[in-house]
Amino acid sequence: MELKPTTPVPGGQPPPGAAPDWTIAQDWSAYTPQEHATWDLLFDRQAAMLPGRVTPAFLEGLDVLRLSRRGIPDFAELSGRLHALTGWTVVAVPGLVPEAVFFEHLSQRRFVAGRFIRRPDQLNYLQEPDVFHDVFGHVPLLANPVFADYMQAYGEGGLRSLRFGALEKLARLYWYTVEFGLIREAGALRLYGAGIVSSYGESLYALDDPSPHRLGFDLRRVMRTRYRIDDYQQNYFVIDSFADLLRQTLEADFAPLYAELETLPDIEIDTILPGDRVLTLGTQAHAHERPRAH
Ligand code: PHE
Ligand code: FE
Prior knowledge:
five-stranded mixed sheet, two-stranded parallel ribbon, 13 helices, binds phenylalanine, binds fe (iii) ion
């Protein structure tokens, strides 16, 4: 699930057929053989490429959750295994849900996932998160106790951010960690963000391409930095460990931070600041080769 504060969300009411908390039945038996085959194709492609690129915690999650079994996972069955490990479950929703609904689920250790899968002509790119992005991308790390705690804390922090009108700042934190985060383990950069690991192209680009900047994670800096939703990222932020990410975000009271950030300008996507810990100074060639969408 992506968090896009710029996306207009439907009004307060869930669509017909959805529960008051916006959940729907996954209706697993309705998937066609073609849909299961699409999952298998995407799964096999990522599973072959990610070892050595992704954090080992992600591969452990795939393993303990038995995600390599063929076909689109049955959320009920997956939730059984996940719940036993970290208390999280996976529930289906019709599409993007209002922020407050999303945060409320996270704070209750429920991960909301789309049930539809992309069409065969959309294997490499689609804008709306589908079941492959949501489940393959996000769920393995929910089997990791520290990351599981981070996601719950994020949900609680999200509900709180709404009271401060600070959703956009907090959404950037989600974007640059949960969706597009990198981690440095034993000196080597590894992927962990769901938006990267569910994308073949970005799994290569985020680690190897000379274009993007790769900067040490800094909470304030991240919350001030704009991001793009239409192409590979121009900036990645690198954490030292999930424990460090959890500690930094949990310990800080964001209320004064939001007030302070309110007085500071946003940072443009490709800007490098004097205080940045620059791990890679990107050429930005990828972005410059393409017309900017906005
Ligand atoms: N500590 C944050 C607050 O005071 C909450 C939070 C925790 C936000 C973890 C993000 C991640 O609002
Ligand atoms: Fe997502």
